[in-house]
Amino acid sequence: MKASDLMVKCLEEEGIEYIFGVPGEENADFMMSLEHSTQIRFILTRHEQGAAFMAEIYGRLTGNPAGCLGTLGPGATNLITGVADSNMDRAPMLVLTGQGASTRLHKESHQVMDVVHMFEPVTKWATTVWHPENIPEIMRKAVRLARTEKPGAVHIELPEDIAKLPCDKQPLPVKKFRRPVPADKIMDQAFARIQQAKNPIIIAGNGCIRRRASKQLRLLCEKTQIGVLSTFMAKGCVDMDAPYCLYTIGLGAKDIPACALDAADLVITLGYDMVEYHPKLWNNDRSKDIIHIDFLPAEIDENYHPQIEVVGDLAHALWMLNERIDAQGYSFDTARQQAVRRDMTEELNRYAEDVTEGIIKPQKALSDARAVMGPEDILLSDVGAHKMWIARHYQCHEPNTCLIPNGFCSMGFALPGAIAASLVHPDRNILAISGDGGFMMNVQEMETAHRLNCKLTVMVWEDGGYGLIAWKQSNEFKKHTDLSFTNPDWLQLASAFNWHGHRVNNSADLKNTLAQALAEDGPSLVVIPIDYRENMALTERLGEMTCPI
User: What's this model's pTM, rounded to 2 decimal places?
Assistant: First the structure.
């Protein structure tokens, strides 16, 4: 067989199910090999960035990598934003790019650039296949690295002449091993410190929604009632209805849940990445005692200097804590955290019956979205002002049911991500929320959604401008630059792509329209005029907030 055949066989051996992408001349051999695969489905996308976002969401939902594919030069550069997003948001991914013949890479040549070095800063590993006999080792290493905590993207480049070479190698067998676990001694120290705490708090990061960690975290909280503050990406690690769920942290301004953090005498961080919510925002005076429990040692930062670091498999570490709690017990006065939960719950419920005409408040839109979505249905957020509202007001029952890009934070994420979510979970409702700016950045994937007959709904919040930038500029400068733009006729756009289309101007009609859209066969578009006057109103309220404890 030729080298490209061997690469496909290696991908099959690894259990790869999907490759998303846009082929080119330089990966034609690979595409011909892939066409003969009965295990891997290739999804043709309308832009490489959309392909990368699709692969990212597949990885986040399954814990296993999918591939995203582009050719050399502009195909590779188009991939890089989605790849960086996946890598920083800890989603396993294989990035597959073609390249010109190895005989012309040493000189100026058509579309040739150093793709591997371009991808190195945004992947866990990037390499070129220089000899077909190396393919089994490269592919085994690539998938293993992509899946290993913390997961991320791996890039493999296959020059067009190497792809054609004959090879008699076979794929390496897949072997999976248990991850290292913490030592008993350090876990004893961590538990002893927890026993001393009068008012502990947990910050749950995105590691808590992977690898059984959520199950063990819920068991710990049931035993101890320690309150959990979730980062944007950790939503659903504990059930929103649980008494120890203190909702979400991560807004730049101080919010009600942060009051529980202020009052804590011990902060236990679990699977926490400071890229999501920097410790300068909650430990600026460096006074907090911190226990860091994660797959990797703590990042070095002057505001994040844990007294105890528990390094190893997170789910197992939580299991070890639960064993000690069962043997020795632990309790504390939960009155302070209950006050925080009560006040934030009232805030979340305040707009459920809000009635407006011609414009709809963000809080009402999210209240209605939560009402029509089941516990295991999936909401995806694009990046923009709506992301901040989703983070604050859309709470979850289960892990991985609210997917927010919060490390690299790339706009254009939600529509292609929703396509991948519908492929992974065709039995669930899939709702993407985008601003009018972010939605138009990958609008071409509307065709992909129709071609695949994806059952998904996109709700576009229309304000005719880049609302989050306006919000941030207004916060700092009391005004903002010109950030306005015009939009297409949304219903005509939906019709042109053979989507169902709905426009909702009055808040009283939104819930029923969302329910209708989610029930429709194929993709649906729901557009609402959003009341972003609430952005500055929220800023003012949070600026005047006093903690209830």
Answer: 0.94
